[in-house]
């Protein structure tokens, strides 16, 4: 049922795509021809901005482009993946020539090698120069082209960071040594492959064999995902594979969810401000995107700190929030909470009072802050004079 709902929603997001898709042409000396491109830019794309976007290259752009563009719209709406630049290569009657590979090696030769070089030496540089692309590139291919995109993995410096191979027609060396090749990467590589129980038998057999190989690979830089769908054909599995692959490839980009909070944040050895900083540094390192930590994520991590009785983390999260957004009351509020919990009532009261002069946040009730000030005023009045002097207010 959930799968059906997702497909219907993805279809709804696809409906307005025609108005957003532009067409371009690139004159290729490698192919000695002009190739048509389908291009979809992010809705908020500004060529004068310094914001960079991942680049998704869609092989079989004739029929794969629209489903992928719709899925990207769907997942970016919920902030489950970054806005991306999507480029579909229209292959049409040239598809067999573009994907032509040696039967023994499974790697491109002749017309296939020319197309391989066209993508690497002409198309990608053209797109990098024309658009605000980040360093993160995704290749998507189905069937023949699902095998073809693997050829970039067999280069010394792979052209793409993520590979979505949907029911790939694996052959030759690629089929037999794909797992071995994936053992040697020293930079992050995402690899996704899918088949189904009703896939073409010869393709399914090769894919399952390749999956057995890759599943044995021990490489910290490889992130591998595999799906074996039920009751999908060679063609109907495409929509499910697109959704699942992007969901997995951009998993780190998603907002903090319950599973991550329970499995990683709660058990983290160290203060939780460091977990947040490292997480978002990793997003920038991988995807070339500087994503801000949201108020909701700060609040979720603070709740985990409370669950751990981790006052040190509470203080450091407060300092981090204040540093990143000094005009917001968020960081000052957390520092006030910390001071109150460690018994520094005068300091806590001052911090609560100063929080009221800063910008609101959605999940903190100002009436509650006023009540805390009143409560601490009473406590402060009842305290005997001359106790240990509290620390100065944090800058």
TrEMBL record:
InterPro entries per record: AB_hydrolase_fold, Esterase-like, Mycobacterial_A85_antigen, TPR-like_helical_dom_sf
Signal peptide: 1-19
Metal-binding in keyword set: no
Annotated keywords: Signal
Lineage top rank: taxon: Bacteria
The name this protein goes by in its record: Esterase
Taxonomic source organism: Winogradskyella ouciana
């Amino acid at each position: 049922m959930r799968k059906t709902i997702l497909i219907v929603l993805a279809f709804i997001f696809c409906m307005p795509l025609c108005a957003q898709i532009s067409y371009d042409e690139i004159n290729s000396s490698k192919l000695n021809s002009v190739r048509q491109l389908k291009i979809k830019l992010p809705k908020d794309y500004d060529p004068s901005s310094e914001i960079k976007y991942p680049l998704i290259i869609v092989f079989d752009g004739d029929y794969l482009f629209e489903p992928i563009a719709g899925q990207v719209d769907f997942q970016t709406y919920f902030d489950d993946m970054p806005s991306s630049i999507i480029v579909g290569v229209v292959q049409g009657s040239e598809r067999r020539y573009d994907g032509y590979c040696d039967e023994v090696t499974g790697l491109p030769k002749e017309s296939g090698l020319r197309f391989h070089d066209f993508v690497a030496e002409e198309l990608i540089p053209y797109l990098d120069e024309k658009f605000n692309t980040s360093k993160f590139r995704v290749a998507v291919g189905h069937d023949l082209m699902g095998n073809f995109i693997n050829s970039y993995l067999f280069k010394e410096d792979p052209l793409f960071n993520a590979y979505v191979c949907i029911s790939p027609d694996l052959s030759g060396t690629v089929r037999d040594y794909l797992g071995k090749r994936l053992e040697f990467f020293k930079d992050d590589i995402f690899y996704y492959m899918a088949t189904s129980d009703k896939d073409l038998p010869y393709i399914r057999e090769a894919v399952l064999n390749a999956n057995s190989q890759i599943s044995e690979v021990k490489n910290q830089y490889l992130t591998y995902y595999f799906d074996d769908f039920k009751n999908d054909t060679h063609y109907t599995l495409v929509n499910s594979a697109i959704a699942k692959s992007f969901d997995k490839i951009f998993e780190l980009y998603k907002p903090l969810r319950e599973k991550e909070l329970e499995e990683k944040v709660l058990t983290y050895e160290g203060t939780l401000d460091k977990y947040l900083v490292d997480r978002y540094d990793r997003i920038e390192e991988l995807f070339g995107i500087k994503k801000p930590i949201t108020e909701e994520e700060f609040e979720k991590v603070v709740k985990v700190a409370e669950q751990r009785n981790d006052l040190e983390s509470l203080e450091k999260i407060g300092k981090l929030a204040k540093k990143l957004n000094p005009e917001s009351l968020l960081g000052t509020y957390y520092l006030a909470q910390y001071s109150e919990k460690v018994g520094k009532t005068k300091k806590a009261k001052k911090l609560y009072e100063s929080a009221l002069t800063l910008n609101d946040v959605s999940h903190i009730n100002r009436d509650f802050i006023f009540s805390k000030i009143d409560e601490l005023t009473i406590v402060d009045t009842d305290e005997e004079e001359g106790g240990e002097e509290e620390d100065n207010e944090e800058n």
